[in-house]
Amino acid sequence: MANSNDTKITKSDETARYDEGRMLPPVDVFEDASGITLYADLPGVPKDKLTIRVEADALTIEGEVSLPVAANVEASHAEVNLSRYQRAFSLGQELDREKVAAEFKNGVLKLHIPKAEHAKPRKVEVRVA
Amino acid sequence: MYRTLFPSTFFAELDRLQREMQRFAGPTTSIRGFGRNGFPALNIGGTPDSVEIYAFAPGLDPKTLDVTIERGVLSLSGERHSDLPADDSKSSVHINERFDGHFRRAVSLSDDVDPENVTADYNDGVVHISIKRRASAQPRRIEIH
User: Fold this and answer.
1) What is the chain A residue with the closest CA to B85?
2) I want to staple B132 with a disulfide (CB 3.0 to 4.6 A). Which of A4, B33, B117, B126 is the partner?
3) Model pTM?
4) For A72, which residue in chain B has the nearest alpha carbon?
């Protein structure tokens, strides 16, 4: 292909990857006074292939499966057919997106998103006059 | 959270549909069923000299995993504990989709594998089991003189 088309090629590669389909990783989410904790199962994703993005109101988790498969392996049965995980969550106003903490171990991602100061529960003292 | 939006029969209906579709996949069914939707998900492949099994089992302590081969059946069992907090008033669970509890999956192996020659490792939440085939079972090219 002509060199002038270089940028176009990358773009279409990007679209091809986008169209490939993604798996929705199963998650557990719970909330307590300190904020939201999320666990996501991303088996087969090495640390360097995991991306966590916080843009505007959305938190996006993306991961690419990378298995040490020998070149001559022929698959006979596959329950994991796709090689990418992706899932997005909307955060809402009361979470502090600047302080997202992430841990990733044995294919499980743990995210903690604290509540913004203004949204933390406050105990209101009731004084009897 | 969103589960409450659907009646519980919605997912049962999806499952039924999926089973219906699998019925048309082939004339025979494995005696151990399709084993789909189980934990951990399995990918199985082979090379001329080995059988490679990948089990997608994130968040486990590999020491608690039990891998056995008995009479040509490889089974993988263990337990995964929930990461959700115990039921109390201090926290609320919004989404609970990840598997927890005991699991066991079995794979029937072909006759030519050597149960003495197995390696297993655990990386990034994936158990990789590699079983060598017996040398005698490997295809051999016979020279014609």
Assistant:
1) A30
2) B117
3) 0.73
4) B47
